[in-house]
Write a structure and sequence with these properties.
The chain is built from twelve helices and nine strands. The chain is α+β, with helices and mostly antiparallel strands. The strands form two sheets. The protein has a five-stranded antiparallel β-sheet, with helices on one face. The protein has a four-stranded antiparallel β-sheet with strand order 2-7-4-5, with no helix packed on it. It is globular, with a radius of gyration of 21 Å.
């Protein structure tokens, strides 16, 4: 089986920074910082969580994931509180990160329902709730491991409906998606992708659009432009980037870039780096 997460995480990384470990008492509001998601692990409740018009009541050990900035409020007992470990998440590329963009606004999972995470969570809580040398660095890495386990869980159980993660959950479509991820510069035709997926051209095209909401060509363009944005932000020359992501010229990349982003590569880079 192809590794559906490897290329994604190599090209669009996710990093964690713990900001709370211990009891959270009373009412606590997190405003939602620009460009930052959050991952909360509730070791002991109960805990009420409010975001927008929605509310959750957590009575068993659970995970709460907010991949994108979203104000939310925790309400727990004034004295006993709820035992929690919380981390900020930074997705490389921000909201353009395809992992971030593919996730629902809120994910809530019971901790004992995350396959294979028991030992990692036990170590994370042990380190988070004790003052030991290297604690912060270790807990940050453990949060990142948990994030990978959550992504794996969502894909393997098919719990995400629509978008890239839904496509990566499909037993055949995922082969074509991973192929595009691994070789974005290749001149992929619909027939090529259907062959990789082991499907007929018409069935592949129909099922791809049904699962992801866009055509294979649109998906490939979005993946290429996302890679181009990363490279441009690092200061790479437009001509070099065009070759790397599968466009034969600066003009071809510029047309695709503007169609996808709404700005030319030059205007986008100036907007991203105004200094």
């Amino acid at each position: 089986m192809v590794d559906r997460l490897a290329v994604l995480l190599e090209r669009f990384s996710v990093s964690a920074q713990v900001f709370h470990a211990g009891a959270l008492c009373g009412i606590n509001t997190l405003p939602g910082e620009d460009g930052i998601g959050q991952l909360h692990l509730v070791r002991r409740g109960p805990l009420e969580v409010f975001h927008g018009q929605q509310a959750l009541r957590i009575v068993s050990p659970s995970l709460l994931l907010y991949p994108r900035p979203m104000p939310h409020r925790f309400v727990s007992d004034d004295e006993r509180g709820a035992d929690m470990a919380c981390a900020n998440l930074r997705f490389e590329g921000g909201v353009r990160n395809p992992i971030c963009a593919a996730l629902p606004d809120v994910v809530c999972l019971p901790l004992d329902g995350i396959f294979g995470a028991g030992e990692v969570l036990a170590l994370l809580f042990e380190e988070a709730f004790n003052e030991r040398c290297g604690r912060t660095a270790l807990v940050n890495r453990l949060f990142e491991v948990v994030m990978i386990q959550v992504l794996r869980q969502l894909m393997e159980t098919g719990e995400v409906r629509g978008g890239m993660l839904a496509g990566l959950s499909h037993p055949r479509l995922r082969n074509a998606i991973v192929a595009m991820h691994e070789a974005p510069a290749r001149d992929w035709s619909l027939d090529d992708l259907a062959g990789v997926a082991g499907m007929s051209r018409s069935v592949f095209a129909a099922q791809f659009r049904e699962a992801l909401g866009i055509t294979p060509g649109q998906y490939l363009q979005g993946w290429r432009v996302g890679l181009a944005q990363q490279a441009l932000k690092r200061g790479r020359a437009l001509k070099v980037v065009a070759d790397e992501v599968g466009y034969g010229s600066e003009a071809a990349l510029s047309r695709a870039f503007k169609a996808h982003v709404g700005l030319s590569p030059r205007a986008w880079r100036q907007q991203e780096n105004p200094g």
